[in-house]
Amino acid sequence: MTYRVALASSDGIVVNRHFGKSEKFQIYEVNDEHEAKFIEERENTPSCQEFEHSEEALLKTIKVIKDCRVVFVSRIGAGAYDELRRHGIEAFEMVREVNEIIEKLKKTNIKYLS
Q1: Which domains does the chain have, with CATH numbers?
Q2: Which pLDDT score, from 0 to 100, does residue 111 have?
Q3: What is the CB neighbour count within 10 angstroms for residue 56?
Q4: Can you give the chain as a three-state secondary structure string?
């Protein structure tokens, strides 16, 4: 099964962005043959602005990564986490190098990552 993964990263090297404050997502595709490839970097308008949260802005961010099965972030609020799950996207909090996460995804099923 092939699936896409979004990573909230300011530099493409480390997952270091809060979901609601991420200005871009790195998108990778992973397949059953233990291969992963970088697809693209997607721009995003952060849904969290000056301690304010907008449902409309959150849904726009989810739309940016709607084709992804999972998103990796440094932090995520409970409301955003729940909304992602309602849209079929699993969220994981971890501050790690993008390459480390991708290598782990290539070797294991994503449900065992946390």
Answers
A1: 3-93 (3.30.420.130)
A2: 54
A3: 7
A4: CCEEEEEECCCCCECCCEHHHCCEEEEEEECCCCCEEEEEEEECCCCEECCEECHHHHHHHHHHCCCCCEEEECECCHHHHHHHHHCCCEEEECCCEHHHHHHHHHHCCHHHCC
pTM, two decimals, is 0.91
CA dihedral 26, 32, 35, 36 (to 10 degrees): 0
What average pLDDT values come out for the chain (114 residues) when binned by 10 residues?
A: 95 97 97 92 88 81 98 97 97 97 84 51
